[in-house]
Write a structure and sequence with these properties.
Order of helices and strands: EHEHEHEHHEEHEHEHEHEH
Oligomer: single chain
Number of domains: 2
Largest sheet: 10 strands, mixed
CATH architecture of the largest domain: 3-Layer(aba) Sandwich
Structural class: alpha/beta
Strand content: 15-25%
Radius of gyration: 19 Å
Number of strands: 10
Number of helices: 10
CATH class of the largest domain: Alpha Beta
């Protein structure tokens, strides 16, 4: 991770995303790039556009000053102002940086409100070719001590493992590997146990402390969230794009529910960016 992109609407909620980014940057040495996007609704009004630019510049300078006074900057912290469709401007910006990550607050009060509330927050995670961390009403910890990593039966479910392990190494995290399924079919159980063995072997090779739980139930999202709260997790690692199957853990609606409901930061991976699962898994 070399650059962390942080969309801001300057609300208290969006600033929690910045706090998460600064915490990550402290451990990874990444640069932090803040961004505010002026929506298309005022593109044709030159006066409003200029006022919005001036306001955004002033807000960013206030943030920089506050961070410097508080001694919270130990990385390159910059900002940029864009105009256009919010989700496309943010994902395009992330694509311009090598090994980038987006940290996105999912609820705001102004400016980005249309994006951050409900299904619109999912636009960034579903369009991004880079990993995204979503933060919703989360109190940002000073470290990532515990990571919950759910597995399903799709081949792609393991693609998030190497990246998650890299984070765990940086933060000395314990990974909670969980399988969650609605079906009691033996074929699904067998595949999940096989994947679990492979991933646990990978953890062992990289000296990652871990725990394993096999859970069954109806609402898979709630099961994952309840478990994450019960172990006081600091991060949940999921996939956003998977094959269409009724057996999937986090296909579309589940990832959407997770992002909208989780009060724990959620790290989402797009499979078409990460490529095939690691050969050594």
């Amino acid at each position: 991770m070399k650059t962390i992109i942080v969309p801001l609407d300057f609300s208290n909620e969006s600033l929690e995303g910045l706090n998460m980014a600064l915490m990550l940057a402290k451990k990874t040495g990444a640069n932090v790039q803040m961004v505010h996007v002026i929506g298309k609704n005022i593109d044709n009004n030159v006066e409003l556009l200029e006022k919005e630019n001036q306001l955004a510049n002033r807000k960013f300078e206030e943030i920089l000053k506050k961070c410097k006074e508080g001694g919270n900057i130990n990385c390159a912290l910059n900002y940029t102002i864009k105009e256009g469709k919010i989700f496309s401007e943010i994902t395009d910006l992330a694509d311009k940086f090598e090994d980038s990550l987006i940290v996105l607050s999912t609820h705001g009060e102004s400016g980005f409100e249309e994006l951050f509330i409900g299904g619109n927050a999912y636009k960034i995670t579903s369009h991004s070719k880079n990993p995204v961390i979503t933060v919703r009403k989360s109190k940002i910890s000073s470290n990532i001590d515990k990571i919950v990593l759910p597995l399903d039966i799709t081949l792609q479910t393991r693609e998030k493992v190497p990246y998650t392990v890299k984070l765990a190494k940086l933060f000395n995290s314990e990974i909670h590997l969980i399988t969650v399924r609605a079906s009691h079919l033996k074929s699904i159980e067998k595949k999940l146990y096989k994947y679990t063995e492979q991933v646990c072997s990978y953890f062992g090779d990289h000296d990652i402390p871990y725990k394993v739980e096999h859970l069954t139930g109806g609402n898979l999202t709630d099961i994952i969230l309840d478990y994450s709260v019960s172990v006081n997790a600091d991060l949940i690692s999921i996939m956003t794009e998977q094959e269409r199957s009724v057996s999937n853990l986090l296909l579309g609606t589940y990832a959407h529910q997770m992002i909208n409901k989780a009060c724990i930061p959620v790290l989402s991976f797009p499979t078409y960016h990460l490529g095939n699962y690691a050969e050594d898994l």
